[in-house]
Write a structure and sequence with these properties.
alpha+beta
Length: about 425
């Protein structure tokens, strides 16, 4: 029997139900405990448990480093987050995930290993979070590079055989990276390029007109980056074949919209509350799936064909030729790929980008999703007189409560 990873909407995502005492690939007891710690908000302990695995140069090196990066970022250990995401980035690049050659950080990983590189949307998110770390620090040049890397070209597969020569490259529709790249360019004084990226985001998703407004972002002195919900996970059959990425947006329902209070009064968001991305929707788009996953889904189809052929062969009035054809087709499909069922469990469903203009000084800020009963309050968020302070928030049902904003981040730009 298989190990089922159940997706609990609005609760701890990783409820590992061990029907036969086994563990999902890429998991250990410590990693499962770390994931549970992450979803209840004990980010520092999650990082502590993940560090040994993230330093082990095996096939899970990249996966464990993005897990570690998520934990460090939520714990506001920016040095730790940068290091973890950079290590993942180095190996992703060295194995041809994006452009770039073999890097010094990747030479310890054997190319013979089936190294987890993630789906394209997972790789884009790793670059996005690295860029966010730099943006929080006001290191806009490095933020720019990371957000640009999050916008790598996508494979647009051209035929059912998925041959390497039969695909096109197409531009990314990863809107949150366009918005944050525009903001980084704006802070660097490259206004024309900033406007172009804001315009690209609006062209892809017209509902983002307020979020991508050039003047509003120029005036913002507090930026809230809010991770909400749970991202897609791979659904598998009894023989560990990937049959899809779930849940779909329809299964999960519409994304609820956030509300923000500043010093006890509701802040008029005026269209800023629109979700810039839905990772559940991206995961359903073929260009955001790796060719391995596409072939693994075919493998599941192959299982069905084999079963159908076997049934046909056992019928009283059987068609032996048809049965053989079905079984043969199924075997060919199943032989085309091995499923990689590992995924980055900490990803959100969406990332809200909320640029606010507040009076300089300390404020108490509350972010809530009334429909879902999610609420976090942050004390002493210091809005600078010049520049912009960025506050990253990870929202789950288990992390409701009141928190103190890290005093070390309460400073203006250099």
């Amino acid at each position: 029997m298989k190990c089922l990873i159940m997706h609990f909407q609005g609760s701890i995502v990783l409820g590992t139900l061990l029907l036969a005492g086994c563990q999902p690939p890429g998991h250990t007891v410590d990693i499962d405990h770390a994931l549970n710690d992450y979803f209840v908000g004990d980010y520092s302990h999650a990082a502590q448990l993940l560090r040994p695995a993230a330093s082990t140069t095996d096939e899970n090196f990249v996966l464990n480093n993005v897990r570690l990066g998520s934990s460090y970022l939520a714990a506001y250990d920016l040095d730790g987050a940068e290091g973890a995401f950079l290590r993942a980035y180095d190996v992703m690049n060295s194995f041809g995930v994006n452009t770039g050659g073999q890097s010094a950080g990747a030479v310890l990983i054997s190319e013979s290993m089936k190294v987890w590189k993630g789906e394209p949307f997972e790789r884009a998110m790793a670059n996005f979070y690295l860029g966010l770390v730099y943006y929080i620090r006001h290191d806009y040049q490095n933020a720019r590079a990371a957000f640009e890397n999050a916008l790598f070209k996508l494979r647009d597969y051209a035929d059912s055989e998925d041959k390497k020569e039969d695909y096109r490259r197409q531009d990314s529709n990863f809107t949150i990276a366009y918005i944050m790249l525009g903001k980084a360019l704006q802070r660097l004084g490259e206004d024309d390029l900033a406007r172009a990226n804001f315009d690209k985001a609006v062209k892809l998703q017209p509902s983002l007109r307020a979020v991508a407004d050039y003047k509003l972002n120029a005036a913002s002195n507090v930026l809230l980056v809010v991770d909400y919900g749970h991202g897609p996970q791979k659904e598998t059959t009894f023989d560990n074949a990937v049959v899809g990425l779930t849940p779909t947006p329809r299964q999960a329902g519409p994304i609820p919209l956030p509300r923000v209070k500043v010093d006890g009064k509701y802040y008029e968001l005026g269209g800023l509350d629109r979700p810039p991305v839905d990772l559940l929707a991206l995961a359903q788009e073929r260009q955001w799936q790796s060719i391995d996953t596409i072939r693994a889904i075919k493998s599941a189809v192959g299982t069905g064909l084999i079963a159908g052929g076997a049934y046909e062969g056992l019928r009283r009035h059987r068609d032996v030729g048809a049965a053989a054809a079905l079984i043969g087709a199924g075997i060919l499909l199943k032989a085309s790929s091995q499923a990689d069922v590992r995924d980055w469990e900490m990803l959100p469903r969406t990332v809200f980008i909320l640029p606010l203009k507040l009076l300089p000084g300390a404020h108490d800020i509350t972010i809530n999703f009334p429909q879902e009963n999610y609420s976090q309050s942050w004390r002493n968020v210091v809005a600078p007189a010049e520049g912009e302070l960025t506050h990253y928030v990870r929202m789950t049902r288990m992390t409701n409560g009141e928190y103190d904003f890290p005093a070390s981040l309460a400073h203006t730009e250099p």
